[in-house]
Amino acid sequence: MTDLDAPGAAEGTVPSGGPVPEAAVTRLAATVARLRAQIQHAQATADGRALIEMAKGIMVERLRCGPAQAARQLERLAERAGVTSLELAVDLINQAADDTLSAVVDEFPLRTATSGEPSTVSRLRTAESAVLATGDPQRVAQSILDHALAPLGASAVAIWSVGADSSLSLVGFAGIDRHEAERWRYVPPGVATPARQALMRREAQWIEDLRTAGLPSIGDRAGGRVAVPAGTGGTLTGVLEMCWPTPLAPQPIRVRRQLEALAELCAHTLESDPSAVGEPDRHDVADLVHLTDSFLDPALVLLPHLGADGALTDFRIHHVNSCFVDPVGRARGAVSGALLLEAYPLAAVEGRLFERIEHVFATGETYRADRVVLTELVDQVPLTVSAALSISRHGDCVLVLWRVEDETARLAALLQHAQRLGRVGGFEEDTATGRITWSTQLYDLHGLGIAANPVPLEQLPDHVHGDDAESVRRLVRTLVRYHRPASAAFRLIRPSGDTRHIRVVAEPVLDHDGNLLALRGAYQDISAQHWTEVALSATQDRLAHTEQHAAEQSRLARQLQQAIMPDKQPSIEAFGLHIAVRYRPAEQSHMVGGDWYDAIVLPSKQILVSVGDITGHGIKAATGMVVLRNALRGLATTGAGPGQMLTWLNLVTHHLTEDLYATAVCGLYDPQTRVLRWARAGHLPPVLVRDGVATSLPELRGMLLGAVAEMTYEEAELQLDSDDILLLYTDGLIERRDLPLDDCVERLLNQAARFTGALDDLVDHVLRDSDANTDDDTCVVGIQVGHGTGARTAR
């Protein structure tokens, strides 16, 4: 019996095997949390203590003093500078060190803006110390997040190692749920993720928001992402991926360099941790050399050549196999052992060969291409060959394997592609042995399997449409009996029952004595061409019918237009008012428009003048013109003013016509008062010519007819004097495609102002000298006030 089993055991304990009280579980969880916090604090303190110890060592070396004296000196200097011992230690290390991290931290201020917070320098060096102190990528990820990335707003970190096949394995993470991490433990080659892009492009990938990037990745599916490749000696060993909970704003260059420095720290851990670099390669250099000697194609085994700074500068040709042939003619021994760029300098520029080898070595991604152009200098003359190329990494080696494209094989492949694209199949029949040779495409044309027996030409009439059998027999007779080339087109009935339109071209092969040795030729499937010709013929028939219908419509529209709107009408004299009207139709018959004019004396002794323009052309525009012109005449008999008449005409246009729109100007002239009341519906205002000066009347408010159901139109009055001339016109008189409309109106004003003569001559003049280029109908109505004795009431 233990103490816990004895009677009177302490409160809160229970006998073995009994239920555990809730209070005991709570105390146990609190103890675990306290111990975990102490461990984390101890780890952070140990990371900082390592930096302080390094600084003491620097002071011992420089001041020639003991460790105890160096510790006291460090504390006094920190107190005098107003910084912590850790920050001073980091400053000393940065001054003594000459590494990438020192270059990065020199870009940051020593202190942060908030008093009491560790400086950026301290955070980076503390993270570096934690990385160097442990080879565990999991602890490295946590340390980087806590010391360096959390102050930048990051919420999670993932450390990926790169396998020999360019796969990615998750070896360390922080701020990510363990179940989520387990799902992303391994990423096969070819899966597009931010880390994969950083690996393949060999540069940092900055993603503002993962939701818009369309890339799957570990952790939250939203927020900013940064993936930085990590590696040394030209080989990428891993990728450091950092996550932000919100979209990531553009970062300054110093922050970018800081994250790249953190990736270099991860590379140190991945290189020192065998479990973090993926599966070990099974082939060493000797095995790879032995393997290449069994190849039937030329092969090179390359080893990386590093510079003094540890960076990849070239590849050394470690081995060339027995099938290797140097393009320049050098012996194998002269190439083996040389640097790749020294032996083949054009590899750096032609075909990007060196760049591809470098990419394969860095990422482990295999490169294959069916056709690559390789160039080398032979006596200063560039020699170009086409070859299939394969580049792969095997551990620390790169295998380059190629196969020079044979000219005969290339031409055969080219012919095969040509036959496939042209749906052509070739054949040859030996008349002595009866052996028939078909190309693969010919089996497809006949609808037969590749193992089926070819169809001889003599049996071909049995496989075609009955109406075409005789033309095929004639083809065979011409070849066999008369020994002349021949061709024929027919409908081939395939075993499936469907029909193909085929053209065959054949020729006889004769010996020196003129005896027939063989027949050879080609079949071509012209079904697509046949149906295209059928469709073209039908389209031509429909087009001819459409043209005939359109011509008939244009003829009817022109007749209707000329019946209602003659080109020229006699001048009208009424109550001292002289009216001249002109109409010019479009030159092209299919451009018959809907322009109209009208000038009539109403029962009220007032005179109605109007011009209008229907949108569109053809019979619809012509009939619409008749509807609106007659409707306006009927509305004028009601005694309403021009504005009210246009309001009613707008209702007619909107409700009683289908998709019809028009502009118009309507005026009522009172001979007794010489006052013109007028309104406009989206039309150009009339032009007033008075005492040699031409001006446009104001643009009264009013939308074109038919656009909306309810519309009111502004009305104005104009007092006319003796000899005043008023021109109402449609846009076909002035409009040009290359000039603004205001410039076109200004030209008409200048023409009207300069002209002196009778009204009929003025109307003919502006119509004749019009430089409009829209080929549209044109209406012009001219009104001139005579010297009558009507009242002169001003309005």
Write the layout of secondary structure elements.
Layout: H1 22-63, H2 67-81, H3 85-96, H4 100-105, H5 120-133, H6 137-149, E1 156-162, E2 168-174, H7 178-183, E3 186-187, H8 194-201, E4 205-207, H9 210-213, E5 225-232, E6 235-243, H10 253-272, H11 285-292, E7 299-306, E8 312-320, H12 332-335, H13 340-343, H14 353-363, E9 367-378, E10 381-394, E11 397-404, H15 407-422, E12 424-430, E13 436-438, H16 440-446, H17 469-480, E14 486-493, E15 499-510, E16 516-525, H18 527-564, E17 572-574, E18 577-584, E19 594-601, E20 607-614, H19 619-636, H20 642-656, E21 662-670, E22 675-681, E23 687-690, E24 693-696, E25 715-719, E26 725-729, H21 741-754, H22 759-768, E27 778-785
Antiparallel strand pairs: 1-2, 1-6, 2-3, 4-5, 5-6, 7-8, 7-11, 9-10, 10-11, 12-13, 12-16, 14-15, 15-16, 17-18, 18-27, 19-20, 20-21, 21-22, 22-25, 23-24, 23-26, 26-27
Helix pairs in contact: 1-2, 1-3, 1-5, 2-3, 5-6, 5-10, 6-10, 18-19, 19-20
Domain PAC: 486-538
Keywords: Hydrolase, Transcription, Transcription regulation
Protein name: SpoIIE family protein phosphatase
Keywords:
six-stranded antiparallel β-sheet, alpha+beta, 795 residues, Beta-Lactamase
